[in-house]
């Protein structure tokens, strides 16, 4: 056991407002999440260090493989992960590199290495009696990490290729395809006119991601969430947290260099980050729970689409295109 360390849019009909408290996905769930850090020196030898947040109660849970943004520590999303995990998910976030992304598509190859390790290596690093259901494997990521999630699903990994090729869904949080040619994958993910994926996609963008705090925006309009949503095939959903910035999904006070990036590099919203995190987490939980229960068209997720005011953060540009 690892050491515990801390297509067409659906017509939307207005429904009577429900408070966020009446939608449990925006509150902590019934499970008790525990953070687990797994280093490459661990006996199970993961290819990259991992930050895992897992329920502690006995059971089998879907797995979310979440890739951090550029130069951000995987544990800088701990509060978001705890929210999601409390609803019955195992969240795994690999630290693919130490500071700056490697050149070319090496980052996607590293992501594939981690993915291929999961069937043999993950079990020994989870709490006792907790099982990972890799038949329900979700790709996710923030910023550049969202791009890596799309790239992995689009078979950009070549050394090695991904053995687990049957992903169930993808949730991208303010994905960015690159702020310039030097930061794009080769070829750029957005050079694909259509993402030919066989599973549903949810893209959550930010209203202030395209606002430059200094010389360049952290999520420029030329490569932002809208571009990823446009290229995705139905079923797909889109949300924008209007009053929040690119880094507001991170912890309130992330450690080390992540704090500098979080507070100084990108435009931030004025509201509490908790509202941003619970909105992102709640949307992800509703999307995945309804998907896995076969109720994506009529469940809690559809309630959020039909009445976005139920979310803790203000949502705009909400769209849900079914297959």
TrEMBL record:
Tell me which SUPFAM superfamilies the record gives.
alpha/beta-Hydrolases
Instruction: Enumerate the GO terms in the molecular function aspect.
Output: chlorophyllase activity
Q: Give the GO terms filed under biological process for this record.
A: chlorophyll catabolic process
Specify the domain of life of the species encoding this protein: Eukaryota
Q: Which PANTHER family match?
A: CHLOROPHYLLASE-1, CHLOROPHYLLASE-2, CHLOROPLASTIC
Protein name (Swiss-Prot/TrEMBL):
Chlorophyllase
Species of origin reads Acer negundo (Box elder)
């Amino acid at each position: 056991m690892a050491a515990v360390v801390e297509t067409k849019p659906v017509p939307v009909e207005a429904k009577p407002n429900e408070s966020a408290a009446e939608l449990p996905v925006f509150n902590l769930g019934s499970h008790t999440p525990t953070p687990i850090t797994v280093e490459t020196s661990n006996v199970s030898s993961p290819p990259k260090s991992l930050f895992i947040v897992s329920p502690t109660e006995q059971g089998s849970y879907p797995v979310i493989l979440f890739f951090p943004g550029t130069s951000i520590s995987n544990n800088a999303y701990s509060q978001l992960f705890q929210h999601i995990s409390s609803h019955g998910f195992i969240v795994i976030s690999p630290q693919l590199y130490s500071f700056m992304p490697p050149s070319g598509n090496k980052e996607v190859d590293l992501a594939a290495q981690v993915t291929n390790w999961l069937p043999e290596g993950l079990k020994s690093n989870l709490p006792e009696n907790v099982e990972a259901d890799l038949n329900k494997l979700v790709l996710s990521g923030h910023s550049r990490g969202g791009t890596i999630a799309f790239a992995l699903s689009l078979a950009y990994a070549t050394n090695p290729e991904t053995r687990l090729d049957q992903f169930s869904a993808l949730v991208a949080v303010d994905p960015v395809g690159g702020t310039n040619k030097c930061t794009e994958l080769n070829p750029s993910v957005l050079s694909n006119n259509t993402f030919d994926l066989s599973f549903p996609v949810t893209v959550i963008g930010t209203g202030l991601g395209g606002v430059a705090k200094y010389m360049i925006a952290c999520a420029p309009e030329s490569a932002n969430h809208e571009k990823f949503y446009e290229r995705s095939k139905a079923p797909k959903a889109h949300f924008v947290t209007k009053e929040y910035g690119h880094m507001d999904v991170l912890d309130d006070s992330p450690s080390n260099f992540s704090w500098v990036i979080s507070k100084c590099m990108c435009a931030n919203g004025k509201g509490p980050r908790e509202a941003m995190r619970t909105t992102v987490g709640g949307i992800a939980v509703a999307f995945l729970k309804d998907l896995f229960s076969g109720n994506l068209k009529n469940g809690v997720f559809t309630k959020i689409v039909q009445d976005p005011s139920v979310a803790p953060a203000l949502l705009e540009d909400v769209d849900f295109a079914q297959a």
